[in-house]
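Appendix B, Record 12. Input sequence as logged:
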Amino acid sequence: MDVLRPTLVRIGGRVYRKNLIQEQPFPQEEDEDFCAGPGDCADDDPCDAFVVEETERGFQSRVEVPSPLYKYIIGKKGETKKRLETETRTSISIPKPGVEGEIVITGQQRSGVVSARTRIDVLLDSFRKKQPFTHFLSFALNQPAIQEKFLQFKEEVLEKCSQDHGVSSSLFQNPAKLHLTLGTLVLLNEQEIQKACDLLQQCKENFVDQITGGKPLTVEVAGVEYMNDDPAMTDVLYAKVRMKDGSDRLQVIADQLVERFVASGLMLKEWDRVKLHATVMNTLFRKDPTEERNNTMTGKSSFKERESFNGRNILKVGLMGRDTPPGAGVGLLSLICTQVLAEQRRIC
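Logged structural output:
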């Protein structure tokens, strides 16, 4: 059945079949590969998702690749690159490590260049999905009125629920970092970061200003919910966010932003619509001071393995946003693509 129903991979608006390989796989991740030649398109149209130029020496195709991904095309001891060149009868030129540039594929036959380019695109797509995210797209929710309510909620929870299993002050979000996450991105060089910023500005001009009328949206942050099935074993507790006027404008903007970023290839599609939520407690925030001291010299992570907490009583406390003052809202003019450095693991 795997032969009759092969895995389909979407790249650049086209669909390719992922063929099975019978040979022994290489032990290193960098050597992952699979066949994807010019005849592997899932439809009858020619593979024209990229440009192949005719030159005096044959044919050529160029592909911009962030330098951190070069190693996946080179492979262990250059084996992946050599195999691609041998099987497609092409020459593949890759910039030096750390130098941003283009991978250039040249060959006597157009079909060989197309095959090599297709296989490189598939490899890049596969390994990009395995990279930890570097940025997230968000609405800031760090206005003073919301921060004040959040700190009141935190104080009340610690006063009434500190004896519940797993509850501690280290679980709470930093008030200055309260936000609505729309989606995460893997941006591996300055060019990709600039592309994301440009797209964000285009979205603002194309539909955000039209939906908002150029004014900030006033939201209400009221009540908390948990993400797993059992409130006694909670990992993430989030505040519910809705428009003060009862409209769905914030949801529409969030969904359209994600749709544009997914279409650009900068973001992977995970859900049909964005779940509007602001994380207030997360077990990934939990720190072990002893472990942190022990690992200062080694550089190892200071985070413990995820330990759930009992959120039943917290849910009874959690109307943190009631009576939120008018004007506490999402300022869409300050919508930003925020780089995540040490806080990568802290975003749910």
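The first strand starts at residue 7 and ends at 11.
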